[in-house]
Amino acid sequence: MIKNVRIIPGCIACKTCENICPQVFHIEGTSRVIGYDFEKYRQAVLRAERMCPVNVIKVDRDDTEAVAEAFAEATLIESRYLTRDVLALSFGVREFSAVAGQYVSVRLRDSDGEFVRSYSLVEFSAAQITLWVKILPDGRGGRVLSSLAAGDRVGISEALGHFVVAEPDIPHAFVATGTGLAPVIPMLRALPADTPKLVFFGVRTQADVFAADILSAIPNTRTIITCSRPSDAWSGERGRVTDHLQHITSDMHVSICGNPAMVDAVERTLTDRWHDRARILSERYVDQSADTLTPRSWIARIVWDGEIGTFVRVAHYVLLTLSAAVPFAWGYAPSLRGDLWDVSWYAVTLLMCIRPIGDLLPDVFLFRALLPLRQGLGILSSVVVATNAGFAYLPDFANFLTLYTSARMWGFETRLLFARLAEIVGIILLITSNSLSQRLLGKWWKRIQRLSYVYFFAAGIYLAHIGSDAAIPAMILVGALWIAAFVKNRRSS
To answer: What is the pTM of this model?
Structure first.
């Protein structure tokens, strides 16, 4: 019997668990347990645990029952490099079936033990499948797969995923980078021959181009291959795929696959142009190299491997810990209150800068990777404001009523008006900064989070009124960054 299901730190949001058992798992930044009928979905829960590429799903059960036939045996037939770091592998399988666009989990083994990685299907039949694998310098899965010889065996799961063809009778556009092209190939082939197809394929240099011959052989398909860092000899398109999206028309169904930063940028560009969100389908390829977070491993990754994702996770937990400590510091160390106000202001200023800098410098992955920190920074800043309000008003409710109902506060004293506005908005943001609110509020959750602009500028104006030297420069900086990012995004669309 399954007693509990937990998600430990280290989730890479690959959606494997959600695809296997959406009744129990859901990705909201990272994986969350959303259902508790574990026995009803027993086999799916155990399969999700087994197939998690970074082993962050922990199932507490009072028996040792294994997942029956979670992986079938597959034998390597052939492997060959398509580019310097893209490897094509063909495996012999038995009684395999899939839908174009799906992926499989591959069970591998090295000196550290057994582990799982997920790869999209490029070709498949009942007896054979082909995968394209990006070989990263420190990639655990790529290291094992590139060392396989014909006849070696691995475990292959059933086909998984919902990144499949929809609305086959309307024009289709596909946007892919790197091995994100893998699921696009079978999806193109699955569409009717007379359906217009448009493919945007982005790579770094011309040496990274592959499968151009495959794309050209698919009927009624126009392909735009673009290099972000081409040499002078390159005669094709230049720039990122996001520089060429003007070719996508409103009547097209758009499928996007590749690194998360690219997928986010394409989705944002299309929705800003009022493209129907129901006609946008996406699949994010994430780094599967992370292992379970331990004190020794995360220090090593940050210092020696420069793994920014691990740093972000650790920093997020540090911010939440600091937030929890604020009320105690406020109550037991009043001399620190001025410092806490400074921390609150600098935290919200950093929060407001991360997104526009990421838009302005999309090639610098650091800023995209820091996006998850915005939640922790927002919580830390608003906890300071909420703590001040609690200590000021709860002991003297009459003072609270006076402050919030007096004509002086709402009409005649600018400083007080913006102070109270920052308090109200900060408390609203703090209350809704959790996954439960996100599920309950739906599309309204994101709209409420936009109050962070009101919070930032209201607090800045208040601080400027009381003589802060940092408030006005910070507001000018944030305003300039957001205007520059807005103009850049508009031009790229």
So the answer is: 0.55
